[in-house]
Amino acid sequence: MGLFTRKSTAPAATTAVIDPALAALTGDYAIDPAHSSIGFTVRHAMVTNVRGSFGEHEGTLRLDGADPSRSTAALDIRVASVDTGIKDRDAHLRGDDFFSAEKFPLMTFRSTAAEALGGDRYRITGDLTIKDVTRPLAIDLEFNGSATDVYGAERVGFEGSAEILRSEWGLTWNAALEAGGVMVSDKVKLTFDISAVRTAPQG
Q1: pLDDT digits (tens, 9 = 90+) for 21-75
Q2: Could you please report the per-residue DSSP string of the chain?
Q3: Residues 6+ apart with CB under 8 A from 151
Q4: Of 67, 80, 195, whose CA–CA distance to 143 is shortest?
Q5: Which of 123, 125, 146 is closest to 23 using CA atoms?
């Protein structure tokens, strides 16, 4: 059952029917960083993957249960919170070879479009800014459902992913390997596991 619409089983000429339960999710939400994760995976030395995450982030969602194209998202990620489990590697990522965290403390995403792909699948497109470079990014998402938690907070959940070429955002540092290839791949997979709490209903 999709977040925004359920299509009628009547002939194609019949317009889509809005599911009242899903339309009721329309409203403003704040991403809960304690129950969300934003991670990445990158190939190291051509043979294995290094995984990491950003521990400090905040964001907002505006969900429109009647028209998914009117839904929006904004996300701020503090790049100094990068964590790959290795202190020296994390310090290198924070430095000028990669994120220049002191000069550019935030990585940001601001949506520009949203669309339903069918079922529980959606795509949100927007502008990703890393350092001083802004480029478009499309994130494919799956709606995991909604619930009221034990504290009475209304929650929605999404998980999604996207792939980028880090060189397109000016993250070009690398080192050649003796046997050929490079130390760090250009392609990076981003992952999103989001729990968001309603802050305001439809209005």
Answers
A1: 668 889 999 999 999 999 999 999 888 999 999 999 999 999 998 888 899 999 9
A2: --SS-B--SS-TTSPPBPPHHHHTT-EEEEE-GGG-EEEEEEEETTTEEEEEEES-EEEEEEE-SS-GGG-EEEEEEEGGGEE-S-HHHHHHHHSTTTT-TTT--EEEEEEEEEEEEETTEEEEEEEEEETTEEEEEEEEEEEEEEEE-TTS-EEEEEEEEEEEEGGGGT-----B-TTSSBSEEEEEEEEEEEEEEEEEE--
A3: none
A4: 195
A5: 146
Handedness of CA 61, 104, 159, 85 (dihedral sign): negative
CB–CB of 27/198 below 8 Å?
yes
Q: pTM above 0.85?
A: yes
User: What is the C-alpha to C-alpha distance for residues 170 and 173, in angstroms, rounded to an integer?
Assistant: 9
Residue that has been written with the tokens 């940001």 in this structure: 108
Q: Supply 41's token pair.
A: 């995976």
- Residue 117 main-chain phi, psi, to 5 deg: -105, -5
